[in-house]
Amino acid sequence: MIRSNANLLLSIKRVTQINKGKQTPCVDGQIILSSSDRLKLYNLLKEYDIKNIRPNPAKRAYIPKKNGKMRPLGIPIIKDRIFQL
């Protein structure tokens, strides 16, 4: 299931089309919105070996809470988001 092309396509769709944070840039500043960009991403990721994937550091953002404190939020890059699904 991990190396399935259908699973990879579904993960790309979830991250780049369905997810609320799809327009949030990450550390690399990459945003995938067009179908041609999704196709390029698919062609790149289908060649990866899942055993050798090492996640990159996530972008740290702080969101204010109701009590005045700040809550940390980590925003991983697109490739890491896809491999997490």
Task: Describe what you observe in this structure.
The chain is elongated. It has 85 residues and is of the alpha+beta class. The longest helix has 14 residues, at 5-18. 38% of the residues lie in helices and 14% in strands. The chain starts with a helix and ends with a helix.
Helix and strand composition category: alpha+beta
What is the percent of helical residues? 25-40%
Spatial gap, N to C terminus: 12 Å
Largest sheet, spatial ordering of strands = 1-2
User: Which strand-content bin applies to the residues?
Assistant: 5-15%
Shape call: elongated
The largest sheet is:
2 strands, antiparallel
Q: What is the string of helix and strand elements?
A: HHEEH
SS element count, helices: 3
